[in-house]
Amino acid sequence: MSFYYDTRYSDEQAETVVELWGEIEADLIREIARFVKRAIEQGEDLSYTGEFRVWQLKEANLLNDHAVALISKATGKSQKAVRQCIENTGVHVVKGDEKIYRQALETGQLTTEPLPLDKSPRLQTAIDACVENAEFGLSNLTNTRMDYGLNGWETLTHATSREYYNATNAGFLAMRTGEKSLDQAVYSSCRSLIDKGISIVHWESGHTDSIEVAVRRNIRTAIAQTSGKMTLARMEDYQSDLVETSSHFGARPEHAEWQGQIFSLTGSNGYENFYDVTEYGDVAGLCGINCRHRFFPYFPGTTPSFDKYDEEENKAQYEKTQTQRAYERAIRKAKRELAVAEGAGLDTKEAEAKVREKQKAIRDWLDKPENQDLPRRYENERVY
Hints:
Blueprint: H1 8-45, H2 49-106, H3 121-137, H4 139-142, H5 156-176, H6 182-189, H7 191-196, E1 199-201, E2 208-210, H8 211-238, E3 242-245, H9 253-256, E4 262-264, H10 274-278, E5 295-297, H11 311-343, H12 349-367
Antiparallel strand pairs: 1-2, 3-4, 3-5
Helix pairs in contact: 1-2, 1-5, 1-6, 1-8, 1-11, 2-3, 2-5, 2-8, 3-8, 5-6, 11-12
């Protein structure tokens, strides 16, 4: 039995959610830059620091109102997009698996005929659980009523205010000391927005993520978990035990150890235990954070669907993909720089040239003979 696993469908589904939040971040970056310029301009006319602090607080409250309006408007869209993404992915997964079960029924390897897909309570329970987890993961971003949520991450409204205060304080100081001109102060004070976008801080660990990274990781992980939960639910419907893990060239070394192999959910019939080897259910294991692997029902006597790769060749390919991610990050950084310039009303020629320069760099790198097997992933270069 041959089954070709293509990640493009799940990637496309994830991008609908990432794009929505990318648009929100871009809007917020422009708003922050616009308010920073206003604050620094006002700082030129105020006679002492105390006056500036009072004016700054008033502006911060106004910016917060703008941020709340933007986020509140997007909350409903985000929830709808997340549910649609999870449901579409889940249905896509089980429909593909159904072909494997049909063949097993025809050859007598399966005797259980379960309920149709749309009638299976296990599948609906799995879908609902995955939607709930995905929405909880994004809850802090959409929460406009508190600074920190139950999962320890700073809310987006609080992060917007923090970025504003950091930028205006730095810009005001540079302006008052005569160190920088107005445009230079605005540009340099928005440096963190240019470098990594609006950062979200975990209040216990101090770890920070950009909105883009947080959303992309959350939704990709939700999709992976949906695939796993839906597959296991349908295997329980069919009373099936064996699974085959997918494989791809350039997998992270820890996952390369178990990809493309056959396991037993119960560790029986001479097969290794699926949960023990792949660490399914763990954040670093199969279907964990940023994992692109899947697993499928398998029946003895059928030809395995996935290739096995040389360990050293796979490691070299993995390192190439990490280099590509670095080029993509450089492009996103240049595009954020352009967004800041636009928001602050600065000259955008230099920022536009930098975007073109970074885009040319990845084109040149991908055109090298040793890299031509890598597709250009435009979705990873976007700042919406």
